[in-house]
Amino acid sequence: ANSSLSKDEKLLNICKLLETNIEYYNWVGFYFKNGDKNELKLGPYVGEPTDHTIIPFGKGICGQVAVSNKNFVVPDVSAQDNYIACSITVKAEIVIPIFVNGENIGQIDIDSNTPDPFTEADERFLEFVCQKVASIL
Ligand code: SME
Question: For residue 102, how far is its CA from the centre of ligand 1 (angstroms)?
Answer without folding.
Answer: 24
